[in-house]
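Morning. Coffee machine broken again, so started the prediction first thing and wrote up yesterday's gels while waiting. Chain of 201 residues, entered below exactly as on the submission form.
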Amino acid sequence: MKTALTTELLISAYANGYFPMPHPETEEICWFHPDPRAILPLNNFHVSRSLLRTMRRKSFRVSIDEDFEGVIDACADRKETWINQEIRTAFVELFRQGHGHSVEVWNKGELVGGTYGIAIRGAFFAESMFHRETDASKIALFTLVNHLVTRGMNLLEVQFITPHLASLGAVEISSDDYIERLRLALKTPVTFKERKLIQSI
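Came back before lunch.
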């Protein structure tokens, strides 16, 4: 019997180090707990000179939680994507219940970059990001990192390492190390935004 991707199931899974992705052929939801695991240390985000130039030259507007569905749809708008309808529906519901969050980058009223994920206390689990203009996704991630630091959060998980994420400061750690950091983050009494803390996980 197929298990529904409920908010409760997803929060419990992420709190225990798992995340879902559909099988590329059957689209059956599979649960991943990779070793090693990729994180982006909040004190290690690399701002390149080219990114600084982009931020100075472009009149981007950046927002938080203004267009979650627009961000997740843009992240899914590529030839190969793991964001199927089941995943989309589940994450939109997470957003509606206050657990999912997005960062949007705008240029002249058009959504040109962004990232989204789930926040549980001191941990943020980044799912995907996109850009339609140069460096727009980097600006979204830079904004996310600064926001997490401001809120007192201490873990930004990015699932798997890629050359792009590595260039921004992401590193791989062992699964055991990740679980230790995750447990610490889940004990941190903070939230992504001003709202009531999750009472149980």
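The first strand starts at residue 19 and ends at 22. Going to sketch it on the whiteboard this afternoon.
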